[in-house]
Amino acid sequence: MIQNKNCQKKGFTLIELLVVVSIIGILSVIVLASLATSRAKSADAGIQSELVHARNQIELYYAAYGNYGANYTLGGTSPTLCVASSGTIFADAKIKSILDNAGKLSGGNDLNKGGCMVLGNAWAVAMPLKTDSTYAWCVDSTSASRKIYTTGGSGSPSTVINSSAACK
Questions:
Q1: 164 in a domain, yes or no?
Q2: How do strand 80-81 and strand 122-128 relate by DSSP bridges?
Q3: What are the angstrom distances between the C-alpha of 119 and each of 72, 105, 115, 163?
Q4: For 37, which DSSP code?
Q5: Is 68 in a helix, a strand, or coil?
Q6: Which of 33, 47, 62, 166 is the most exposed place for a label (fewest CB within 10 A)?
Q7: In a domain, 102, yes or no
């Protein structure tokens, strides 16, 4: 007499477990890549926000002192890296703090990650974007606030700010 034994399968096979683990691994890589992109885009939004705050603070500086401080250029007609030079608007503690934050969001340590210029009654500030450093966010005394391609992708302030201290 042949007995029919019911063999019930309990648990999962090794192949089934490996397939599930590999699918989870692939999904986690996709999620982490997406998260990194989201962080960079968030930093770009932060840079834009900080520069708008800087523009407002610079205009408050102008309202209080009637000027934008000493001229700040390289060679008289070119923008240069932002530095908190004495007598300039960039030495003002509030403005420096805002630009420091923008520089950190851009991947630097402080405000000297960006380009700045003050020429008489005009000023401009540009900061490279985190998602693509061949672009910068630029604000100026004419109320411009826009994304600008740095010519040749160099990130140089002179490719974003013109000789009249305005965003190109």
A1: no
A2: unpaired
A3: 7, 26, 14, 9
A4: H
A5: coil
A6: 33
A7: yes
CA distance linking residue 146 with residue 60, whole number of Å: 21
Q: Which two tokens stand for residue 45?
A: 């939004």
Q: 30 in a domain, yes or no?
A: yes
Token pair, residue 88, equals 């300039």
- The count of domains in the chain is 1
User: Over pLDDT 70: what percentage of the chain?
Assistant: 89
Residue 118 phi/psi, 5-degree rounding, is -130, 130
* Domain assignment of residue 9, yes or no: no
Q: Which two tokens stand for residue 58?
A: 């610079």
Show the tokens assigned to 20. Answer: 């599930």
Q: Which two tokens stand for residue 145?
A: 């606030």
Tens digits of residue pLDDT in 61-101:
999 999 998 888 876 667 888 888 888 898 899 999 999 99
- Please tell me the pTM assigned to this model: 0.77
Q: In this structure, what token pair is assigned to residue 113? A: 């990650």
